[in-house]
Each structure stands twice: as C-alpha cells, then as structure tokens.
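Lab notebook, bench 4. Continuing the backlog of folding jobs that were queued last week. Each job is logged with the same field layout so the records can be merged later without manual cleanup. Today's entry covers VOC family protein, a 131-residue chain. Filled in by technician R.K.

JOB TYPE: sequence-to-structure
TARGET: VOC family protein
LENGTH: 131
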Amino acid sequence: METVKATIKNAWPYQQDKMNLPVPDLETAIPFYETIMGFRVVSRQTSPFKSATIDKDGFQIGLAENGGDPTQDGCFFEVDDVEKAFAELRANGLEKSEPIFDHQTYGTTDWKVFFVVAPDGLCYCYGERQN
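JOB STATUS: finished
OUTPUT FIELD FOLLOWS
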C-alpha cells in the first residue's frame, strides 16, 4: 500500500512563537502530534516549564506548559499538497470523515486550506498555494 504523504514547506505561528505553543498538559498532548500529525519528539525541557520540541519534515514546533491559552494559538502549515495532507491525517487516525476545504487569500496569495483542532485546543491550518 502506498503511503500518502504531504511535505510541510513552511510553518508560521498564529501568535508570536511557534516554539512555545501553549498546551495544558504536555504528556497528554504529545501522542496526538506523534500518532495523527506525524511529528516526532526531538527534545524535552523541564525549565522554565515543561516543554517539547517536535519535528516533521525538518520543520519544528514547540509545545509548552507555559500557561497560555491554546484556543488562541496554533500554526499555519504550508504544504505541497493539501489533499494529500488531509489523507495522511485520516490514514493516521484523524476522526474527521470529510475535509472541509476552503479558499483564503492572504496578501496576493490564494490558498486552498483546511483546519485541524488538536485535543489540546491548538488549531492548525494546512494550506497549499494556488495559481
């Protein structure tokens, strides 16, 4: 069976820092990122608070028990193929039967996008540039 996989080309945080995305409980959050989103933990820290750096395709984000509100943060992932990205998440066990693709414009760039909200409350937008 062929593995369906999209490549992350870039990542931008919604707030200031994609390396300090707030989660209420790091240990509870990590399995979703590893199992569903395909990240792997590359490092962990305990000071100044519990946090972990996770990596996929050479792009890293950080999850941190920093007291922030996860419902107000997340990342935008630019991917090479938004439909493959959704198929990969579904194959990994994402409980969302159908993608809700939308078209959004930022500046002069048109994007085909879909959203995933992690159990910790962080929201992720996957987007593919449109010509």
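OBSERVATION: The mean pLDDT is 93.
SIGNED: R.K.
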